[in-house]
């Protein structure tokens, strides 16, 4: 888990909740969140040496009724849009059908550089309007 200030972690967890509610289809998917240090639903994959490992994206969408992972979402904050975190995005992109990375709007240029060459990754920005409502924008 990323090391964030208490305030930044609270913002992160709020964005995870809002994005999960608004951007992942609750009617066709079972959406599970892993905010903070929670490990409610993971993505298990085979490592290079043949063993198994599990990672815990912020949001995991399971198709109803068979519970197959169809998408994962990862929410970043200003301090976590880094090369170190982009390795995690690459892992999610390799092992999930679709991977969505949500970054603060002011971090979009840095994020664009970091996502180059990552398959199955869809970059989104988030910001808030003057009433505190989240605005999520697709990044081409």
Map the helices and strands:
Elements lengths: L5 H18 L5 E5 L9 E4 L5 E4 L3 E5 L4 E8 L7 H13 L3 E6 L3 H8 L5 E8 L5 E5 L2
Parallel strand pairs: 5-6, 6-7
Antiparallel strand pairs: 1-4, 2-3, 4-5, 7-8
Question: Describe it for me?
Answer:
The chain is of the alpha/beta class. It has a single domain (6-138), classed as Trna Endonuclease, Chain: A, domain 1 (3-Layer(aba) Sandwich), CATH 3.40.1350. 28% of the residues lie in helices and 32% in strands. The protein has 3 helices and 8 strands. The strands form 2 sheets. The protein has a 6-stranded mixed beta sheet, sandwiched between helices. A two-stranded antiparallel sheet has the order 2-3.
Percent in helix:
25-40%
| Rg | 14 Å
The class by helix and strand makeup works out as alpha/beta
Question: CA-to-CA gap between the ends?
Answer: 28 Å
Largest sheet: 6 strands, mixed
The strand line-up of the biggest sheet is 1-4-5-6-7-8
Strand content: 25-35%
3D shape: globular
Number of domains: 1
Query: In sequence order, what are the helices and strands, one letter per element?
Result: HEEEEEHEHEE
CATH architecture: 3-Layer(aba) Sandwich
Write down the CATH class: Alpha Beta
Q: CATH topology, what is it called?
A: Trna Endonuclease, Chain: A, domain 1
Please count the helical segments: 3
């Amino acid at each position: 888990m990323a090391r964030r200030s208490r305030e930044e972690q609270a913002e992160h967890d709020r964005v995870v909740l809002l994005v999960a509610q608004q951007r992942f289809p609750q009617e066709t998917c079972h959406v599970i969140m892993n905010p903070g240090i929670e490990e409610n639903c993971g993505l298990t994959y085979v490592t290079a040496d043949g063993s198994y490992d599990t990672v815990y994206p912020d949001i995991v969408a399971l198709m109803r009724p068979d519970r197959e992972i169809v998408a994962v979402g990862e929410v970043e904050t200003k301090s976590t849009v880094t090369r170190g975190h982009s390795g995690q995005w690459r892992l999610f992109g390799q092992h999930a059908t679709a991977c969505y990375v949500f970054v603060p709007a002011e971090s979009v240029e840095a994020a664009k550089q970091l996502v180059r060459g990552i398959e199955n990754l869809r970059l989104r920005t988030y910001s808030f309007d003057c009433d505190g409502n989240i605005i999520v924008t697709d990044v081409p």
